[in-house]
Amino acid sequence: MDQTSWLRLENELNIAAQQLTQPDEIRWGVSALTAHGLVIRALSKQNTTLAAGLLTFWRMATQALYGRNAIPPVRSISA
User: Fold this and answer.
1) Which domain of life is it from (predicted)?
2) Where in the chain are the domains?
3) Contact at 8 Å (CB) between 30 and 13?
């Protein structure tokens, strides 16, 4: 991806970050790296809301980067 595409994706994910942010509970942010990537960050009072938010970002980024839906890994239980 070129720099313009990364910045466009950063903007889209920042919109999601604003929507997922809950004052006094959890704050989300997205920043473009110097080259080829984004950083997603969160600050939360409770870790229970982090997983759902990260899954949202992962799905959005997978769609933007690869043009397909993200398939979450299946957790296997060992005997």
Assistant:
1) Bacteria
2) 3-66
3) yes
For the stretch 6-64, pLDDT in tens is 999 999 999 999 999 999 899 999 999 988 899 999 999 988 889 899 999 999 999 99
In the Cβ-directed half-sphere of 42, how many Cα atoms lie within 13 Å? Answer: 24
Q: Which two tokens stand for residue 43?
A: 């600050």
Q: Which amino acid is at 42?
A: A
CB atoms under 10 Å from CB of 58, counted, come to 13
Q: Are 7 and 13 in contact (CB under 8 A)?
A: no
Q: In the block, which residue shows the tokens 């299946």?
A: 74
- Its sign, for the CA torsion 22, 62, 48, 41, is negative
Residue entry with tokens 């769609």 = 63
Q: Please name which of 2, 18, 7, 24 lies closest in space to residue 57, comparing C-alpha atoms.
A: 18
Q: Give 27's strand partners.
A: 43
